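Morning. Coffee machine broken again, so started the prediction first thing and wrote up yesterday's gels while waiting. Chain of 146 residues, entered below exactly as on the submission form.
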Amino acid sequence: MRQTKMSNFADKQKWYIVDATDLILGRMSTEIAKVLTGKNKVSYTPHLDNGDYVIIINADKVKLTGNKLNNKMYYEHSGYPGGLRERNAKTMIQDYPEEMVYRSIWGMIPHNRLGRKQIKKLFVYRNEEHEHQAQQPEVLELKGNK
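Came back before lunch.
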């Protein structure tokens, strides 16, 4: 019986840049989560951080389908009585687009030690300016979007 060979080391990690203009939030997030976790590579190993770095620009221009702009709610609780904060997607995309995109991708990554390490390789920016020109990121074309 043949067994699958597991890799013992992480591959060299690349840097990718994604322009979120007119991309659908959920579809974009699934593709980026695959890149962050390394599931897009042949050398994917579940227990290693094999993913690549991803920079997202123009987060405020991301699209939501249906009536999610008005109906989708984001909740946070401070832990104190009466400490529930509710915001809908319209306020999030106007005031906190980086947080909205970050939350969407974080929901698709494992919530364990490895996932916390992988999500640190995500950088989200509201507009075109970013501070990662030195890494020379490649443009990542997302399939099945728009």
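The radius of gyration is 17 Å. Going to sketch it on the whiteboard this afternoon.
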